[in-house]
Specification:
This protein has twelve helices and 14 strands. It has 366 residues and is an alpha/beta fold. The chain has a domain at 19-225 and 260-287 and 326-341: Rossmann fold (3-Layer(aba) Sandwich). Strands 3-2-1-4-5-6-11 form a seven-stranded parallel beta sheet, sandwiched between helices. The protein has a three-stranded mixed beta sheet with strand order 12-9-14. A two-stranded parallel ribbon has the order 7-10. The longest helix is centred in the middle third of the chain and has 22 residues, at 129-150. It is globular, with a radius of gyration of 20 Å. The relative contact order is 0.14. The model is unreliable at 1-10 and 361-366 (pLDDT under 50).
Length: 366
């Protein structure tokens, strides 16, 4: 097993992720970030999802260790389900779990100092692209309006590398200043189109209301709380490997991805929130690229048998491989952010966590 798990503080709080991950977050997040967060009233959307759970784990742990006197208001469409999924987060004394939908925040007023908009809607993007677009853009509008009426001074938007559209095959790592865009003729671009509009809306709001907006363009991630039964390839591979099944690769396996571990992600998000320049975007992800076929074999090897991989299609000769890999020089140079966790450790930590869940292998996000 990788890392100590579920140690308690003196007050008896027991986290849901490995303590060495929480210690990494504490150590690698700059001290001035924790000081800036002291006493802050933070409103979080998407707090019950992958990104949100990690932020809550880190903020609660830091509050316990540093006495930050944080107040966290977390929006959830299904508070009762979240209390079952993560009772240690949902029922913690500094957490106020609010039932609601990010598309309608009219009944919420604050006051809040910080808005973290981590809610997204990608699960049904292919089935209903227009609804996906409306939900993402509407949620951004609602959270920006909440920021204005609640007196918030900081706003963090979790955007996506999908805003760049298809990465050119000759560009191995896509930089923050790349001016590509999703294909407007493709219905499958709803998620990327909506994230672009959300970024633009946040800039308009920042200019009108003096809100310090920072944007994290997230690429592929891995770690505890990642759904293993959704559309995430690495999650599906880990699920199949833990079951002892052959890992199935649906395409030809030549697409390049990179994976940042969730603890590292959390350091990046908190640092971007506080130290990121207002009105700037920062790519968030790993630069260590790997093909999906290689990833499948890597996961299989980490979990037992590297030969248990089946790739559905053969590569097409002369066809360039697709890529989804960031250049993170801006985050590294401006904010001194780094990758702290190697891929093997990330896979093992995620697998260890999944095995501890009573619901495995039927693990879903809320």
């Amino acid at each position: 097993m990788v890392g100590a798990q579920c140690a308690s503080t003196a007050e008896g709080y027991q986290p849901g992720i490995a303590v060495d991950d929480l210690q990494l977050i504490m150590e690698k997040t700059p001290a001035e970030v924790w000081q800036a967060l002291r006493g802050q009233r933070i409103f979080v959307t998407g707090g019950t999802g992958f990104v949100g759970c990690w932020l809550l784990e880190a903020l609660i742990w830091a509050n316990e260790q540093l006495g930050l006197e944080l107040k966290l208001t977390v929006l959830s469409r299904a508070p009762d389900a979240f209390r079952i999924k993560a009772a240690h987060l949902a029922t913690h004394p500094i957490v106020n779990l609010v039932r609601g939908d990010v598309g309608d925040l009219q009944g919420i007023d604050g006051p809040f100092d910080v808005i973290v908009h981590a809610a997204t809607d990608v699960a049904n993007a292919d089935a209903d692209p227009l609804a996906t677009f409306d939900n993402i853009v509407g949620g951004t509008r609602q959270t920006l309006a909440l920021a204005a009426r609640s007196g918030a001074s900081r706003y963090l938007l979790t955007s996506s590398g999908a805003v760049y559209g298809r990465q050119p095959p000759d560009l191995t790592h896509i930089p923050d200043d790349y001016l590509g865009a999703p294909d407007t003729m493709s219905l499958g671009s709803a998620y990327g189109q909506a994230k672009r509009v959300s970024e633009w809306l946040s800039q308009c709001h920042a200019q009108q209301h003096g809100l310090a907006v920072s944007i994290a363009r997230c690429f592929a991630l891995v770690g505890p709380y990642l759904p293993l039964d959704a559309h995430f390839a690495v999650g599906n591979f880990i699920r199949d490997g833990l079951r002892g099944d052959t890992i199935q690769v649906s395409g030809d396996g030549t697409t390049y991805r990179s994976y940042l571990y969730a603890a590292d992600m959390t350091v990046w998000l908190l640092t971007i929130l506080i130290n990121g320049r207002a009105g700037q975007t920062y790519n968030l992800g790993s630069e260590r690229q790997i093909t999906i076929g290689e990833l499948a074999g890597y996961v299989a090897g980490c979990l037992g048998d590297a030969s248990k991989v089946a790739i559905a299609a053969a590569p097409v000769a002369g066809h360039p491989a697709q890529r989804y890999v960031p250049n993170t020089d801006k985050a590294k140079n401006e904010l001194q952010l780094r990758e702290y966790t190697d891929l093997q450790s990330a896979i093992r930590k995620t697998s260890d966590w999944a095995l501890r869940q009573s619901s495995f292998p039927a693990i879903s996000g809320l």
